[in-house]
From TrEMBL:
Lineage: Bacteria, Bacillati, Bacillota, Clostridia, Eubacteriales
Superkingdom of the source species: Bacteria
Pfam families attached to this UniProt entry: TRAM, tRNA_U5-meth_tr
Keyword S-adenosyl-L-methionine attached: yes
Organism this protein belongs to: Agathobaculum faecis
Record gene name: rlmD
Protein name (Swiss-Prot/TrEMBL): 23S rRNA (Uracil(1939)-C(5))-methyltransferase RlmD
């Protein structure tokens, strides 16, 4: 059956893609339809047709799925941050569990029953402790903050985000008002001029502290003392206001230099019973409640009895490292970001953990250097791209008896699991965690044994 662009076809949504887009088949051809739910019967207008697949948009919802709900967020469907605002949370968990299982079976070549299940989040609103708002102008020239429309650099104005902390939204509002009043221009990426690029807010879930990092392309801005005064008055829990200077031409948010405008350079919080000081550059899980569950699972999978030497690659500010150190003889944390390594060292000292050490190095290089240390358990928590080739090769030279893999991307996890299992490891079990409700992202912990 030939599919024709701009023609309307009736179909039923049968699945979701990895990014939460609805999937249907029309005339045997795969068709992708955003903002739909499995079970939806709808009339779809095809907006793009290729040799193998087609893309459409809903013209009429003929019979809605039983899992469809009215989105609570007014920006749903326009903002690129959330893709599951229109379905029940139970359906979202089912979709995410299936996403992890499909990746492990289809890409990883594993038995799907190894995935024990998915742990849902206790809260699906205001769970994020970190917000990074791009700044721009609306058509009338007013200052706006929000989030990018999917696959674009167009900012969808959002003044109240349902997944960000309410504190972050309030701080962003103060900065917007100050920029408007004193004519502080947002950075224009096309023209390569302007001042404020992003508003970056972190909130300590347990400490109650908050920190603003204003990311700018210039160090000269008017009335900074007014901004500080207004922020301190509106947010008494604010402990630091920082300026990060970024003159790069790419999409990297943070620049290389951060100055303290007022207050403390570090934000304090507590996680898994430990106290942490965090710089803006340090990695820290954005969902506090789920992070504690995730790390408890990783420590349980590690099977520590108190005599092991553990290597924690991609350790960030040392959050997993300190959790593991409670049960191991020695834990070595490795991180490539110098500020994060300094954070980790201070965090170990402030928590009285003497059986840890930290190295500032690339994960693959460090793994090679430590190959002679007799590593009993390797824990990895890589970025979305997964393990690079150097890291994988180093692991296979080191051959630790157990590998605990914490992943934020099922596809790269499955790829790496397949590589490791092809070299003598086997997947014993896996557990998924919904760290990011209403978005397409999902975390997974896997235990591999040699």
């Amino acid at each position: 059956m030939e599919l024709i662009k701009n023609k309307i076809y009736r179909c039923q949504i049968s699945d979701y893609t990895a990014d939460g887009t609805g999937f249907a088949k029309i005339g045997g051809r795969a068709v992708f339809v955003p903002r739909t739910a499995v079970g939806d019967q709808c009339d779809v207008r095809l907006v793009k047709v290729t040799k193998n697949v087609a893309f459409g948009r809903v013209e009429k919802l003929v019979a809605p799925s039983g899992t469809r709900i009215e989105p609570a967020c007014p920006a749903a469907g326009r903002c690129g941050g959330c893709c599951y605002q229109h379905i029940t949370y139970e359906e979202e968990l089912r979709a995410k569990g299936k996403k992890v299982r499909d990746a492990l079976t289809r890409i990883g070549g594993q038995d799907g029953s190894k995935l024990l299940g998915i742990t849902g989040a206790p809260a699906t609103v205001h769970y994020r402790n970190k917000a990074q708002y791009p700044v721009g102008r609306d058509k009338e020239g007013g200052i706006v903050t929000g989030f990018y429309r999917s696959r674009s650099h167009e900012i969808v104005p959002v003044e109240r985000c349902l997944i960000q902390s309410e504190t972050a939204d309030r701080i962003a509002a103060v900065v917007r008002s100050w920029m408007q009043e004193f004519d502080v221009p947002p950075y224009d990426y096309g023209a390569n001029r302007g001042a404020v690029r992003h508003i970056y807010v972190r909130v300590g879930e347990k400490s109650g502290e908050s920190q603003l990092t204003l990311i700018t392309a210039t160090r000269k801005m008017p009335a900074l003392e007014v901004l500080v005064s207004r922020l301190r008055e509106s947010e008494p829990a604010l402990t630091g206001i920082l300026l990060n200077h970024n003159q790069r031409g790419d999409n990297v948010i943070l620049g290389d230099r951060t100055d303290v405008l007022w207050g403390e350079a570090m934000l304090e919080d507590r996680l898994c019973g430990h106290s942490f000081l965090l710089s803006p550059e340090a990695f820290y899980q954005v969902n506090h409640a789920q992070a504690e569950r995730l790390y408890a699972c990783a420590a349980d999978f590690a099977g520590l009895m108190g005599e092991e030497t553990v290597l924690d690659l991609y350790c960030g500010a040392g959050t997993i490292t300190l959790t593991l150190a409670e049960r191991a003889k020695t834990v070595i944390g490795v991180e490539i970001v110098p500020e994060a390594v300094e954070n980790a060292k201070r965090n170990a000292a402030r928590n009285g953990m003497e059986n840890v050490e930290f190295l500032c190095a690339d994960a693959g290089q460090a793994a090679r250097q430590l190959a002679g240390r007799g590593i009993d358990v390797l824990v990895v928590d890589p970025p979305r791209k997964g393990l690079d080739e150097v890291a994988r090769d180093a692991i296979l030279k080191m051959l630790p008896p157990r590998v605990v893999y914490v992943s934020c991307d099922p596809a790269t996890l499955a790829r790496d699991v397949a590589e490791l299992c092809g070299a003598g490891y086997w997947l014993e079990r896996a557990q998924a965690f919904d760290m990011f409700p209403r978005t397409s992202h999902v975390e997974t912990v896997c235990l591999l044994q040699r």
